[in-house]
Amino acid sequence: MGDTFQTIVDRDATLEDAPRLAQPVVDWLVAEGIVLAEAKPGWALGDHPAHPPGPHWHKAVEDARWGAPEGVAVYTERHIFWSNFNAGDSPTGSCPRCGTAVDEPSLLSDATTRWHETGKADVECPACAETVPLEAWNWSDDHLAFAHLGFEFWNWPWLSKEFRARMAGFLPGHRTAFLPGKI
Ligand SMILES: [Zn+2]
Q1: CB-CB contact of 142 with 83 (8 Å)
Q2: Less crowded by CB within 10 Å, the N or C end of the chain?
Q3: What is the mean pLDDT of residues 36-47?
């Protein structure tokens, strides 16, 4: 038995905007009865507080039959979100300017370290020589997202497409990513 998570990430929210963007989403989830208003520790992995499921949590999922969901952790800080749903694949980044996949893992892993430490890392694409911020790179199967806003559902049954679209609707004009995984 492991724990599963499904994270909906706003790829474009800035550190400054993240709390302001998160609030209406949380308010809606609470109003719908999908989560409870007060986030508490113990409902997600680690100490990060999470909103316990509300009385109508099943509205968010495809099939509630086997569900015993835990909390929803809301991240409004610099965070590297990841997914391992397609186990065994190693993530490949591709340049958002020219679309070329980068096959020098060290180029992006060095940038990952810099971004984690400072929130800023530019990568020069080996194919088109454009300098592109790390968070703008695209990843195979949405494996990674370098972002400031994410909603992480712990041990929820599969979130429905409709629900994910409603969530994305609160973040107009922003790119979102869906990162499911298992630990
Ligand atoms: Zn390029």
Answers
A1: yes
A2: N
A3: 92
Model pLDDT, residue 140: 83
Enter the DSSP assignment of 157: P
CB atoms within 10 A of CB 171: 20
What's the 134 CA to ligand 1 centre distance in angstroms? Answer: 12
Cβ 177 vs Cβ 11: under 8 Å: yes
Tell me the sheet residues that pair with 154.
5
Residue 106's pLDDT band, with cuts at 50, 70 and 90, is confident
* Residue 72: HSE in the Cβ half-sphere, 13 Å Cα cutoff: 27
CA of 103 to the centre of ligand 1 (A): 12
Q: Where are the domains of the chain?
A: 4-84+143-182, 93-141
Rounded average pLDDT over 167-183: 94
**Position 90 pLDDT exceeds 90:** no
- Residue 65 DSSP symbol: T
